[in-house]
Structure formats: structure tokens, C-alpha cells
Amino acid sequence: MLSEDYPDLLKADGFDEAIIGVVERIGIQALCYDTDKVIEILMERDGMTYEEAMEYFQYNIIGAWVGEHTPFFLTRDHEEE
After folding, report:
1. 0.85 surpassed by pTM
2. pLDDT tens, 63-78?
3. What are the boundaries of each domain within the chain?
């Protein structure tokens, strides 16, 4: 459904389960992913430890810029849970 409403959105390959919505600013829309879910996927799918998954995430995912529609990653405040 999001791809129909926002055809220019760029996806982080292999992390569809972590998509939580779309973030918008004037003239810019991008997918938003749940950071915890991305880390969980890396650990389960790729057999990484938490530390390995965090390092991979920070360097290869957060560190990737692919233009104005580069996805966002939300880190939740776990103190409120």
C-alpha cells in the first residue's frame, strides 16, 4: 500500500518487516524503520551477535546515503515501556 501512495520511496532491502511508516517533511517522504526490529532481523537472519548487528547497522545501514528518499530509522525510548 505504501508503494502505491509513495512511489519514490527507497527501501532497505531485506527489512520489510521492520517498516513502521512514512516520515514527511516539506517535499520529502521516506520510509521509517524500527531500529530494534532491524537489529533483530540481522541477528536472526544472519546469525550475528547483538554487537555485530549494531556495528553492521551503524556502518552499512545508517551510514548509507542514497539520496533525498534515504530511509529513516527510529530508535524508541525504552524507558517509557
Report:
1. yes
2. 999 888 899 999 998 7
3. 2-75
